[in-house]
Design brief:
394 residues; 9 strands
């Protein structure tokens, strides 16, 4: 092409570049525009044409990054195993790999079921359910892609179908064992990944352990979000091991099936951990046995800043344990204990601790049966610490 032989576009002044980009056809092939057209008006036009909502601030104010991230997301979300050729995804990689830093995949489609003859359906109904091949329900294979995205830092996945209509099946809302193995392989190869979110995907202990094994000693991972899954104590023990062999800063395990035993495993790792800043265990059934274990771990931890134990079945025993932490630990910035039965005893213990603490700037005690006077005193202490923090920042 003449343009390739005389690359004078970058030598033009900004108004001249805009003039040309405003008139470039949006139908130009990506292999041409990706390399020749820099971030600016042209890519803004491309985004505005395809999507109604375009908040470029979520993409470091780069229209080109927005286009390629969302373009790749759309291809993956509409990928039908057995129908869509994997090459349809891989063909885009050379153009987008330098711009894709985050992928937010909100659905993953299943293979299309072939219509069965009446006789085949009868035979299928006679077969035990566990003999039906699970591989037929596998989703997109991330192992063919992630190692090629050399700048990928954030990956958010949900194994679900957004609009299933009358074709609803529970398998539309979970990852298979094969999906898990392939994703684990992909995660291990993606050494630039800093944030992994895998939510609402029916991840239980077995799958959790497979995924965690691939993340041990990961060089870049800083945030792990496995919320809204089915992880129990065996999965929690694996995550405890991950805390001792990673540099995690944020861990979200909210709304799973972790009990006191799993909480104790996480607490044991927490007592020796020096990187974790935020731990979210809300809506797990920890009880006081688990809550007190976390409190005991924080007696030896000077790193954690945010702790969420909302709706975990703890009582005043855990509140007393945490009050002892607050009397000697000024690292904690926020504690959420809402939707637990702490009662007046728990409230008084926290009130006394907060009066001496100079670090806590948030203490959520909604729906805890703590009396209003104690809550008022705790809020005063928290506000005092907030004001002090603001003065120090100035």
């Amino acid at each position: 092409m003449v343009v390739a032989k005389t690359p004078i576009f970058e030598e033009l002044k900004p108004p001249e570049k805009d003039f040309i980009e405003e008139r470039l056809s949006l139908d130009l092939p990506l292999h041409v525009t990706a390399s020749l057209v820099s971030d600016g008006v042209f890519w803004k036009r491309c985004c505005k044409q395809r999507w109604k909502l375009c908040d470029v601030s979520h993409y470091s104010h780069s229209w080109k990054r927005m286009f390629f991230e969302r373009h790749l997301e759309n291809i993956i979300e509409l990928f039908i195993p057995g129908v869509t050729e994997p090459q349809a995804v891989l063909n885009v990689v050379p153009f987008c790999q330098h711009y894709v830093k985050r992928l937010d995949i909100s659905q993953l489609l299943l293979p299309i079921k072939e219509p069965q003859e009446e006789e085949d359906v009868f035979k299928l109904n006679l077969e035990p359910e566990n003999e039906v091949s699970e591989s037929k329900m596998d989703h997109f294979d991330f192992s063919i892609l992630l190692d090629k995205l050399t700048n990928l830092e954030e990956l958010s996945l949900v194994y679900r179908v957004k609009q299933c209509g009358m074709n609803f099946e529970w398998k539309m809302f979970e990852m298979t064992d094969q999906d898990c193995e392939l994703l684990a392989k992909a995660l291990k190869s993606c050494e630039t990944l800093k944030v992994l979110r895998l939510r609402f995907s029916q991840v239980e202990d077995k799958k959790c352990r497979v995924l965690v094994k691939s993340l041990l000693d990961h060089p870049s991972l800083r945030e792990l979000d496995f919320s809204y899954n089915l992880i129990g104590d065996r999965g929690a023990r694996a995550i405890g091991k991950l805390l001792s062999r990673s540099h995690l800063e944020i861990l979200n395990l909210s709304d799973n099936k972790i009990s006191s035993h799993g909480a104790q495993a996480i607490a044991h790792a927490l007592s020796k951990n020096a990187t974790l800043l935020s731990l979210n265990l809300h809506f797990n059934h920890l009880t006081d046995e688990g809550g007190e274990a976390v409190g005991g771990a924080l007696m030896n931890n000077e790193t954690l800043r945010h702790l969420n134990l909302a709706g975990t079945g703890v009582t005043w025993h855990t509140a007393v344990s945490l009050s002892k932490v607050l009397q000697r630990n000024n690292t904690l910035k926020s504690i959420v204990l809402s939707c637990n039965k702490l009662g007046d005893v728990g409230g008084k213990a926290l009130e006394e601790a907060v009066s001496e603490n100079i670090g806590l700037t948030k203490c959520d005690l909604g729906l805890t049966e703590v009396d209003e006077q104690s809550i008022s005193f705790i809020n005063e202490g928290v506000c005092r610490n907030q004001d002090s923090e603001l003065r120090n920042e100035k």
